[in-house]
Amino acid sequence: MLAQHADVEAKVRAECRHVLAANNHSWDWKALGELKYTTAVIHETLRLFPTASMLATRVCVQDNDMPTLASVNQHAKPVFIPKVIHTLLQLHLQLNIPMPKRILRPLYHCVEMNKAIEFMLARKNPILAESAALMLRQVAHALTLLLRPIKAKLEASKRFDDTKLDILAAVSVVEDILHTGESFSSTRLTVLSLAIQIALISDDEPKDKKTITPSGEAEARKLVWKLHVLCDFQRKIRLATDCSFLYWSRELLTLFVQDMYSVPENANAIKVLKTAGHEENAVAYYVEAFASFVEEVVEDDLVVPLCMDIENDLRLHVHSVHLEHMETPNPINNADFKVLHYYMDLRPIRIWGKCVDLRDRVTHYLESTFYNLTTVALHDWK
C-alpha cells in the first residue's frame, strides 16, 4: 500500500515522527493510540489485501453489486481481447514491422487468460444449464410486473387512439411471449424486442402522470438485454474467447513455448495455449495437420529440452557429490537455475486425442540413457 502511494507514505511518516517527538522519543500504548491516520491506513490495507485468516472468517451479510465499466469510469470501454491481439498481429504484418521480444510474453498471457475464462465457464456449464431456466423465469416475471401498470391503465381508458391501441397490443404480445413457453428462440426474442419498443412509446401526458418513468424504461430495456444474454450466453462466450485466428500465425506457438520454458512457473499455460488456434468447424485434414504441428512443437521445444536439462542437473548433482572441486548447484545464488519440477507436476497434456505425460517421458529418457551407458557393452554397440 505505502509502496504504491507516496503521498500516503509521507503522511504516515510525518505522523509517526510527530507522535514520537511528543512522547520523548519512546513508544507506548498511549503513543500508538495517537496514530489515527496510520491505523486507518493499516485497516484499509487489510481490507484491500486481506490475509488468509481474515478471509476464512468473513461472512456475507448483504448483497454486493459488482462494479461495471460505467460505475468505474463513465468514459471506459470494454476491451475485446481476441480483437486486440488480432489487430496487433495484423498491424505488424501489414506495416512490415518486426515484433519485439518484450511483447511476446504479454501476448501469450492474454491468450492464456482468454482461454482460461472459456474453460472456467465450460466447467460450470452444468450449473449454468440448471440455473438458466430459473433466471429466465425471474427476468420474465420482473418484466411482466413492470408492464402490468401500462396494460391496466390502457384497459381502463375510455378513449382510444391508434397509439394507445398499438401500445396495448404490444403489451399483450409481450405477456403472451413471456407466459407461453419456457424457452426463448431467436424469433421470439426479436418479436419481444420489437413489442417492448412499441410498448415504451412515450405518451402526451405530463411527467407526474406517466405510467412508466424514464428509469422504468431503462429497467425494461435492461431486462430485455438480460433475456438476450441468458438465451444465447454459450455462443456469446464462444465468440468472445475465440482465438482461432492464431491458426494463421501458428509460427508464434514455437516462440510461445520457448519463452514459457524459460520461466518454469508458467508451465500450466501450455495446457491453455495448445487449444488457442483450434477451429471447431474446420476440415478434419487441417485439424490433423495442426495437431501434428502442435505435437512437433511440444516435442522439440518442451519435451526434448526438459529431458536434457534434467539429465544435466542430475549429472551435476552426482559429480558435485563425488568431486571435491565441484559444488552442488544452488538456485538462490544461480539466476539461470531452472526449477523444473513445475513441468514434472503437470497432469498429462491432451493434444487432440493423444496424451503427453512429461513425467513419463522424462522417466523413459533417463532409463534409456542409463541402460545405454551402463548395461550395453561399449565394444558391442552394433
Automatic annotation (TrEMBL):
<feature type="domain" description="WASH complex subunit 4 N-terminal">
    <location>
        <begin position="82"/>
        <end position="244"/>
    </location>
</feature>
<dbReference type="GO" id="GO:0020037">
    <property type="term" value="F:heme binding"/>
</dbReference>
<dbReference type="Pfam" id="PF14745">
    <property type="entry name" value="WASH-4_N"/>
</dbReference>
<dbReference type="InterPro" id="IPR028282">
    <property type="entry name" value="WASH-7_central"/>
</dbReference>
<dbReference type="InterPro" id="IPR036396">
    <property type="entry name" value="Cyt_P450_sf"/>
</dbReference>
<feature type="domain" description="WASH complex subunit 7 central">
    <location>
        <begin position="245"/>
        <end position="382"/>
    </location>
</feature>
<dbReference type="GO" id="GO:0016197">
    <property type="term" value="P:endosomal transport"/>
</dbReference>
<dbReference type="Pfam" id="PF00067">
    <property type="entry name" value="p450"/>
</dbReference>
<dbReference type="InterPro" id="IPR001128">
    <property type="entry name" value="Cyt_P450"/>
</dbReference>
<dbReference type="GO" id="GO:0016705">
    <property type="term" value="F:oxidoreductase activity, acting on paired donors, with incorporation or reduction of molecular oxygen"/>
</dbReference>
<dbReference type="GO" id="GO:0071203">
    <property type="term" value="C:WASH complex"/>
</dbReference>
<dbReference type="GO" id="GO:0005768">
    <property type="term" value="C:endosome"/>
</dbReference>
<dbReference type="Pfam" id="PF14744">
    <property type="entry name" value="WASH-7_mid"/>
</dbReference>
<dbReference type="InterPro" id="IPR027307">
    <property type="entry name" value="WASH7"/>
</dbReference>
<dbReference type="GO" id="GO:0005506">
    <property type="term" value="F:iron ion binding"/>
</dbReference>
<dbReference type="GO" id="GO:0004497">
    <property type="term" value="F:monooxygenase activity"/>
</dbReference>
<protein>
    <recommendedName>
        <fullName>Cytochrome P450</fullName>
    </recommendedName>
</protein>
<dbReference type="GO" id="GO:0007032">
    <property type="term" value="P:endosome organization"/>
</dbReference>
<dbReference type="InterPro" id="IPR028191">
    <property type="entry name" value="WASH-4_N"/>
</dbReference>
